[in-house]
Amino acid sequence: MINIIWFFILCFGICFGILGGRGEEISKSIISSSDSTVKLVISLAGIMCLWCGVMKIAEKSGLTNKIARVMKPVLKILFKKAAGDEKAIGAIVMNLTANMMGLSNAATPFGIKAMEELKRLNGKTDEASDDMSLFLVLNAACIQFIPTTVISIRAAVGSKNPGETIIPGIIATAIAAVVGIICCKIMEKYF
C-alpha cells in the first residue's frame, strides 16, 4: 500500500512540475539527487564495514557474553514462562545483547529463534503470549550502547563529532525500554 502512495505522490509532483513549466529543473534535481545518493551509500558502506568489524571484535572478545550474563537474571524476572526455559531465555538474551552492541544483522536470527521458542512455550497458536509481546517491545526499544547506524550516517554526511549521539541515544533507548516494560506489565493485568 505504501508503494502505491509513494508512486502517486511522485507522479503527482512530476506532472505538476512539468505542467508548471519546470521540467528541466525536475530533470536536474533527479540527476543530482541520484548522484548524492550514490555517494552517501558508498561512504556508508565503508563506515558500516568498520563498525561491523569493531562489533565483531566485541563479540569474539567475549564482551557480548559478559553483557548477556548480567542481563539473564533480570530477564528471568521479566519473562514469566520463558524464565524456566533455557533455550528461550538464551535466544532472548543473545538477541537483546546483539541489539545493544549495534549488531542488528546478528540480532535478527536470534530474534527469530527467540520468537520461535516463545511460540513453542505458548499454548495458543493463534495469539501472542505476554512473553512474546514483551519480547517484541524490548526488541523494538532495545537499549543501544553503540548506535552504529546513526554514527555511520552522521560520519558519512560530514559531522564533526558523529559519536556525540551515544549518550543521548543510551538515555532515549533506556527510557523507551523502561516505558515499554511498564506498559506491557500493566496491559498483562488487564488483557
Automatic annotation (TrEMBL):
Membrane-spanning ranges: 39-58, 134-153, 165-187
Keywords of the record: Membrane, Transmembrane, Transmembrane helix
Location of the Nucleoside transporter/FeoB GTPase Gate domain: 42-154
Any Pfam family: Gate
Protein name (database record): Nucleoside recognition domain-containing protein
Organism this protein belongs to: Clostridium lapidicellarium
